[in-house]
DNA sequence: CTCGCTGCAAAAAATTTGCACATTG
DNA sequence: CAATGTGCAAATTTTTTGCAGCGAG
């Protein structure tokens, strides 16, 4: 099952309706290799989706862990989901500074880092944001 | 020498003028335990500083590595600087979800993580953003 | 005295809200 | 048909730009 179908199923399971705007936003994000803003998504829909609707759809999708906000830009990117569970996966991205291409990565070491930080500070750490920036395979060759 | 004096000296050394707005913004950020937006800084100045000026001062301070933008909120926080060098220090923050208190931390492990990611992906990684969220000592007791 | 910096006005961009109507289940 | 979700209008918030005048060096 592909990203869109899984996402729609999760929405349904969580009591959300499967509407055309939601499906359309998922399709646009699924196709894109880079993160997109609400306005960019509205544009890519041929303006069929109002920006306000896009904002609200994005909020819903994010709450259900179906998409991920790139914190340095505020734009959105689909993220890995599976039929079994989409709960609290630790999402990290590498973002190409040149073309915007984003790849989701697996970063096992962070739980260790969190433990080290926890014991070196007086904080109780609950979560973190981590984004890497650089050049993707194509752009580093130029 | 304290934060403000060092910062002003660095500005001077880099060819920037030492102006009252710059000094005032530095003072406000120095006093604050949490990150502040341009509007909050303007307010804390008793509206003596125009928001536009604050935006421009913040931009200058950031370019000189004297302050640091909290990427998840867009607000600014002073960061560690020394008379000798303020170049490209790797800044990481722990941010209290409850009260907003921010502490700058030293996070040695990240260069190792960057190397691991580099070798596991096709990207040439240049930098990263890392922020931790949790509860500070005071707030975790409540 | 000169160049860089600030303040004011205004524009542009990003995000949120209210409400009537449409759509899903 | 009942509850959610959408579209439009409008308000709010955030950030940027232009330009005249001020002030640091």
Structure in words:
The structure is a homodimer of 142-residue chains. Chain A is an alpha+beta fold. Chain A folds into 2 domains: 1-83, Winged helix-like DNA-binding domain superfamily/Winged helix DNA-binding domain (Arc Repressor Mutant, subunit A, Orthogonal Bundle); 89-142, Dna Ligase, domain 1. Chain A has 6 helices and 5 strands. Chain A has helices spanning 3-13, 20-31, 38-44, 51-63, 110-120, 137-141, and strands at residues 67-70, 75-78, 92-96, 102-105, 124-135. In chain A, strands 4-3-5 form a 3-stranded mixed beta sheet. The first copy, chain A, has a two-stranded antiparallel sheet with strand order 1-2. Chain A binds a DNA duplex (25 and 25 nucleotides) through helix 2 and helix 4.
Task: Compile the SSE list and pairings.
Two copies of one chain form a homodimer.
Chain A: H1 3-13, H2 20-31, H3 38-44, H4 51-63, E1 67-70, E2 75-78, E3 92-96, E4 102-105, H5 110-120, E5 124-135, H6 137-141
Parallel strand pairs in A: 3-5
Antiparallel strand pairs in A: 1-2, 3-4
Helix pairs in contact in A: 1-2, 3-4
Chain A binds a DNA duplex (25 and 25 nucleotides) through residues 16-22, 37-39, 49-53, 55-57, 60, 74.
């Amino acid at each position: 099952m592909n990203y869109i179908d899984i996402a729609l199923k999760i929405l349904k399971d969580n009591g959300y309706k499967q509407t055309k705007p939601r499906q359309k936003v998922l399709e646009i994000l699924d196709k894109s290799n880079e993160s997109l803003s609400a306005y960019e998504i509205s544009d890519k829909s041929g303006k069929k989706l109002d920006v306000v609707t896009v904002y609200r759809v994005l909020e819903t999708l994010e709450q259900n862990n179906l998409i991920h906000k790139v914190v340095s830009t505020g734009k959105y990117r689909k993220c890995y989901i599976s039929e079994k569970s989409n709960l609290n996966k630790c999402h990290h991205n590498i973002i190409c500074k040149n073309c915007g291409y984003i790849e989701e990565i697996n970063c096992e070491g962070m739980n260790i880092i969190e433990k080290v930080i926890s014991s070196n500070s007086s904080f109780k750490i609950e979560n973190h944001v981590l984004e890497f920036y650089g050049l993707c395979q194509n752009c580093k060759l130029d």
